[in-house]
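Hmm, what's this shape?
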Amino acid sequence: MNRIRVRIVAVLAVLAAGLVPALVAATPAPALSNPALPWLTLNRTIPSQPWAGSTTKAFDLEGSAYLPFDHTLWVVNDQGDAAYEIDPANGKLLHTISQASFAAAKPLGASAPLAGMSRADSFASAAYDLINDKLYIFSGNCCGVAPFDPAVFRLSRNASGVFAVDSYQPLPEGTNAAASGVVLGGALTSARVRRSVRTTTRRTPSVRTSRSPAPGPRSTA
């Protein structure tokens, strides 16, 4: 009889021990923290009238593109018809590419006609292709009397490793690339004022349009 009692007690002890993990596992976990949403805050401003270390003034800056390998910032001037390379750490002007340099650009894959002053006008946005190391600058006057001759200019590094305008591609009349970007491994895109996305192929002079809502070295002229 005593042996039976001992065995029953032992079995009950084992069963009780087996229930402990189940009870622990069934205990609800504490609620996850709910951190506040991140917000961008102003760190500082970079004066452009004039740029630090120069007498050059820019009054109507619009698009910009950051080059992470060079640690430089490219900004374009609408009214001034120029592109500036800036050191974002101190705001110093590193170089200016003038309107004349854009006007002298040849069309992509051809030798003529040159872009001319009408296309090298009213720069609106810039985009950097991180994969192919190319810089693109969009132009296209939005006001006045048509035609406005919009275009996108490509900047490539020369033999010295510095950026310079190498070609341009005309865009359909009416294009106003207020913002632009590069889809990695894909196409060059621009957002129009009328909230549509325009996709531009970078190797052939053609443009595809979608009506869906749009959500190191120094350079020489």
Observations:
- The two ends are 104 Å apart (CA to CA).
- Helices lie at 2-26, 99-103, 116-119.
- The first strand starts at residue 61 and ends at 67.
- The domain at 61-210 is CATH 2.130.10.10 (Methylamine Dehydrogenase; Chain H).
